Amino acid sequence: MLGLAKYLSDLSWKPIILTAPLGKRSELPCEVIETYYPGDIFAKWRKIFGHLGFNTQGSVKEQIKEHLGLKSEKSFLDLLITFYHEIFAYPDTEKAWKEPAIRAASRLFKNEKISAMISVWPITSHLIAKALKQEYNTPWIADFPDPWSQNHNYPYSKVRKYFDEQLELKTFSNVDAMTAAAPLYAKKQEHFHKRFVAVITNGFEPEDLNRPRVSLTDKFTITYTGTIYIGKQDPEKVLIALKNLISKNIMNADDVEIRFYGQRQIWLENKIIEHHLVGVAKQFGLISRYESLQRQRESYLLLLLNWEDPEEKGVYPLKSFEYLSARRPILAAGGYPGDDIEKLLIQTKAGVYASTVEEIEAALLSVYKEYKRSGFISYQGNLEEINKYSYREMAKKFAVLLNQITEK
Question: By C-alpha distance, which of 312, 367, 377, 323 is closest to 345?
């Protein structure tokens, strides 16, 4: 949405962002209205655990699991937190923002001529837009970076899903247009809502494009940035492929490093130990977005973990667009051939798709040989195709839709 706000300004639209307090991130390229925000449903718990000595900037859940010696991917603590979410996070964890946001928006609507609205995640944002639509009859686009009740990663029971589905249908009964960030999401939303849903993917900041390219690391570095969804993505395939190549003396363990940036995961650390990759595979914890971009650009290979579900062959991780802007070869590992990520890589020539351990081994060996032979890995990405996924192009698509609903 930051990219959208920036580039809509070049397309005859004046963006105004309504948001909870941004703190240091208030230097946005448009007018910003920051409202009062009492905090999400975990705010009081973070305060309590902070007094107990836990680092509330990191994952408190993972710290507790480590403290209790819980090593499984899904422990009783995970189930307990999911149950807490199911009961108290309806419709989402940010629900306390609704009333302050509506009050602030109402003052804005009385002082400005608001021509249209775009509501984005979280769910509460859509509920706010629904209330404003009813009050002011302003044309409204609802954007879905992820589906709501039809989400491929839906974590709750059938009972909770029923209530989510009913609320979703009611919320968007009078929306003017809907957009989704991937073709699969659009199909799901179209089937559920019985209406057209436009596909407008996420993108990257064109000013972040890695040009000129930064220097690469000394080691053959493979980098993953972001969240790993347990049970949905499988980094173990890559670990097994690396272990096989090292154990066969095809790869030198001293030359290779695979880096994971994001919430530190105990189960992943256990997999690293299990496959004898301590010193080769490392978790570095949370870092800033700026540093994340730097770590991507200096890497020989960027790791993308595909969705391990044959029914979900259209999930676009946000990092796939960041990876395109990094202009480093992408290894999309796992998943099932024929999905939208494979199509994206074929279109942009930005990387290789490898769904099995054997295919991952072959892909790693190919680029490792080039690294050993020449000290670098050539990049074959088609810049013209890559630029089609910039925020500038994304904003053009939103502008077309905004013009349509306001003219109508």
Answer: 323
For residue 225, list its beta bridge partners: 261
Q: Does the structure show a pLDDT above 90 at 48?
A: no
Q: State residue 50's pLDDT score.
A: 75
User: How far, in Å, CA of 155 to CA of 147, rounded?
Assistant: 13
Contact (Cβ atoms closer than 8 angstroms) between residue 115 and residue 57: no
Compute the distance between CA of residue 45 and CA of residue 88 in angstroms, rounded to an integer.
Answer: 13
Question: How many domains are there within the chain?
Answer: 3
Distance separating alpha carbons of residues 195 and 184, to the nearest angstrom? 15
CATH code for the domain in which residue 163 is found: 3.40.50.2000
The domain in which residue 81 lies consists of: 43-88
Instruction: Give residue-wise pLDDT tens across range 223-270.
Output: 999 999 888 899 999 999 999 999 999 999 999 999 999 989 999 999
Asked if 309 and 195 sit in the same domain, the reply is no
Residues 47, 132 within the same domain: no
Q: What is the dihedral angle through the alpha carbons of 264, 311, 199, 353, rounded to the nearest 10 degrees? A: 60
Q: Measure the CA–CA gap between 61 and 39, rounded to whole angstroms.
A: 18
Burial (Cβ within 10 Å: 0-12, 13-18, ≥19) of residue 119: buried
DSSP letters for 105-161: HHHHHHHS----EEE-SSHHHHHHHHHHHHHH---EEEEESS-STT-TT--S-HHHH
Of the residues 88, 118, 145, the one at which a domain ends = 88
What separation in angstroms does the CA of 388 have from each of 118, 183, 187, 383? Answer: 22, 16, 22, 9
Distance between CA atoms of residues 6 and 8, nearest Å: 6
> Is residue 223 domain-shared with residue 356, that is, in the same domain?
yes
How is 19-38 classified by DSSP, letter by letter? ES--TT----SSEEEEPP--
Nearest to 174 by CA among 205, 199, 140, 146: 140
Nearest to 259 by CA among 280, 228, 278: 280
Higher confidence at residue 95 or residue 376? Answer: 95
Which of helix, strand or coil describes residue 348?
A: helix
Provide φ and ψ at 119, rounded to 5°: -105, 140
Which amino acid is it at 182?
Answer: A
Give mean pLDDT, residues 94-121: 96
Look at residues 250, 233, 232 and name the one whose alpha carbon lies nearest to residue 364: 250
